[in-house]
Amino acid sequence: MKLQFWGVRGYVPTPGAAYLRYGGNTCCVAVHGTAGELVVIDTGTGFCQLGDKLMEGEFRQGRGELTLLITHTYWDHILGLPFPGVVHTPGNRLNIYGPDSTRGSLKMVYDGILSPVYSPVYGLANIGATHSFQPISTEPIQVGGLTVRALPFSRRKHSPIWAYRIEEGERALVYITDVRYIDDQIWSQAVGFAHKADLLVHSAPYTRDEQVEDYGHSRVEDALELALEAETRRLFLYHHAPTRTDTALDALVMHYRAEVVALGGTFELDAAREGLLVEV
Ligand SMILES: [Zn+2]
After folding, report:
1. Cα(203) to centroid of ligand 1, in Å?
2. What CA–CA distance (Å, rounded) separates 92 from 151?
3. Angle between the N-to-C axes of helices 184-193 and 220-230, in degrees from 0 to 180, rounded to the nearest 10
């Protein structure tokens, strides 16, 4: 299978000349199975350009199907859904999985961002694509030859956060974002979930020196330590802070590659960048 990054930024879209190489769209990745399966994780603004790309193929004729996995419903993970043509073309099918919260269902959230207050679409009922919403659970989901597993990191009941692991045969990728490892239990769950993954995509907007306040975000060091302890083969830092220019990200990766060596790690370390296609 292959993973392609379509949005790698956290918090807010970040356009500008200083961000062109890594990109300014918010969270969205596409996972392509060997048999043509398509699974998309998060619908940040990166989903708009992915949607345009998909419209070059069967989605233009209304014969496309994709599975969406939503980690949580903060803006940077949902904002792209209303815009691309794939969503508005009758015949396309969207199978959407994600967490409901104490404030309402995932469907209600997406319906809300399409409400007349925010959008001329006037609600989910008016999008062209056939769509279904399923609350995510720890029961595995099968998408063709891909097995999807999910893990809750639900310390905020009004916006629970889940992580995803996708397996194809012996290969596995893990996607973890917006998580703070506040105790040993959550840490050991994460280590088990990411165990021996070929690819770990992990949010890392700050370093421990930069952010001591806990707003629920993981730090670069968290991602490194998880990759080390879970024995993953490759780590992509993800959900970059809007302040992180291309030059700053280059420097960050160089610095932490040395750190990986100092820690005795053997995994490859990179920063996720928009458009990059990775063979898992
Ligand atoms: Zn986020």
Report:
1. 8
2. 28
3. 60
Query: Partners of 146 in the beta sheet?
Result: 143
> Around 52, how many Cα atoms within 13 Å sit in the side-chain half-sphere?
7
Give the rounded percent of residues in the chain with a pLDDT score beyond 70. Answer: 98
Q: Determine the distance separating the centroid of ligand 1 and the alpha carbon of 62, expressed in angstroms.
A: 31
CATH architecture of the domain formed by 2-279: 4-Layer Sandwich (3.60)
Question: What is the C-alpha to C-alpha distance for residues 246 and 230, in angstroms, rounded to an integer?
Answer: 29
Q: What tokens appear for 63 in the block?
A: 């014969």
pLDDT, one tens digit per residue, over 214-256 is 677 889 999 999 999 999 999 999 999 999 999 999 999 999 9
Closest CA to 249 of 200, 199, 206: 206
**239 Cα–ligand 1 center, Å:** 7
Tell me the domain boundaries of the chain: 2-279
| Dist. CA 90 → ligand 1 center (Å) | 30
Give the distance (Å) from ligand 1 centre to CA of residue 208: 17
pTM: predicted TM-score of the whole model, two decimal places: 0.97
Q: Is 99 left (phi over 0), alpha (psi -120 to 50) or beta?
A: beta
